[in-house]
Specification:
Layout lengths: L3 H33 L42 E6 L2 E5 L8 E5 L5
Antiparallel strand pairs: 1-2, 1-3
Length: 109
């Protein structure tokens, strides 16, 4: 009815289940031992002295941050219209090499 492979597979599963059960019982026993064990009296070998706790020092006041300067992103009156490979861009920077540059009057817009 059962082949040798099936019996070996069944036996290996039973051995594995037994091993896992033993490990779980060992862990539970160890945790119970640690929980129920009375605290061992420890002798540090050095006399213990009570130390007074100092209150935390006040943090130094940080200097106020300087106010950001107003920046002009586009130079007023200097806008360039650049055309490169059919693409038109407007910028305050001169056009790169190979682009057609046309000065645009900023006040007319």
């Amino acid at each position: 009815m059962f082949s040798t492979g099936d019996r070996f597979y069944d036996f290996s599963l039973r051995v594995l289940m037994g091993f896992v059960t033993l490990v779980l019982l060992g862990c539970i026993g160890f945790l119970a031992f640690r929980w129920l064990q009375p605290q061992a009296a420890t002798d540090p070998g050095v006399p213990l002295v009570q130390v007074e706790v100092k209150p935390p020092a006040e943090p130094a006041a940080a200097p106020p941050a300087p106010e950001p300067k107003a920046e002009v992103l586009l130079a007023p009156g200097k806008i360039f219209r650049c055309e490169l490979k059919g693409r038109v861009t407007f910028s305050d920077q001169p056009c790169p090499a190979g682009a057609t540059q046309t000065a645009v009057d900023a006040k007319s817009r």
